[in-house]
Amino acid sequence: MKTMSLAANLPGRWLEITDVPVIEPGRGEVLVRVAVCGVCRTDLHIVEGDIGATPSGLVPGHEAVGTVIRTGEGVNLLRTGDRVGVPWLHSTCGLCEFCTTGRENLCRLKTFTGYTVNGGYAEYLLAREDFTVPIAPGLSFRHAAPLLCSGIIGYRALKLVRPAPGGTLGIFGFGSSAHITLQIASALGYDVRVVSRHAQHLKLAMQLGATQAIQATESNEDAFLTRGKMDAAIVFAPSGSVVRLALESVKAGGSVAVPAIHMNAISITDYEKHLFHEKRLFSVEANTRADAHEFMRLAARTRVRSVIKEFRLEDANAALSELKAGEINGSAVLLIT
Is the pTM of this model over 0.90? Predict the structure, then answer.
């Protein structure tokens, strides 16, 4: 099968096309023929080594959707031909204090698709049956792929900071996850304000239901437009300075969630402005399977629409480069089979 895997001894730790054998599914596993895989900012952090060293030959990708073609021993629910998604969370131990209390996203022995095991930048992918997510028949693979991480993690962040009904939610940074989270929040009746550096992202935000779009500047001259006016905020931009702006933007008692796997330094320079008045700051680590299933049902009910830019599998490097440069408006996806 064709894959795009981490290249050995190449600057930037970009990807190279390889041809490797297809591995048969083991106990509890299914073999998925991948149709589409989303390109997530976490993939960029992985290939650039931002979240730890990864071996050459690793296949990234954790927003994979496709069809089950073979099942291993002990697989009870999935059948050949079933449409499934394979998200970031690949497995957990099932036994620790976190797994047994509904917090499996915090399991210290969890594994990740496209990071600790090979992922979806490939024609075929092995997945654990009990960690796959069903894809509804009416949802195209192309538009389903970004929901498998961008959508799920944004939903978990929204659950953590959920303001009162009709409240105001700030979204800081507007990429793949944000454009999906905006639609969910709007469908739930929130007043959503978006802050981004990129004019084309703000235009898309207004098209998708934002009530206000604010263009940020390097000097944060527009901060007065948001200061103290939001009930809650989600920071998608991996920037400590943006976290400070979000904390400044929420009201007393407000919450800020940061669903980022990698973030530059967060320096709280003014306690009264940023943290006092019982403001709360949450980091978001991965997701639970319950989050994934809840979100996919909610996305179907609210008819969430992924805005996508399509690339071929062999053009994965170009997709990552455009993502890094902020040139993707919505989500990037790789069309594979």
Answer: yes
- Which CATH superfamily, name and number, covers 2-148+307-335? Medium-chain alcohol dehydrogenases, catalytic domain (3.90.180.10)
Computed over every residue of the chain, the mean pLDDT equals: 93
> In the numeric block, which tokens belong to residue 148?
């498998």
CATH for the stretch 151-283: 3.40.50.720
Instruction: Find the range with the poorest average confidence among 29-33, 50-54, 167-171, 303-307.
Output: 50-54
User: Which distant-in-sequence residues (6+ apart) come within 8 Å of 45 by Cβ?
Assistant: 51, 261, 262
Q: Which pair of structure tokens corresponds to residue 199?
A: 């004019």
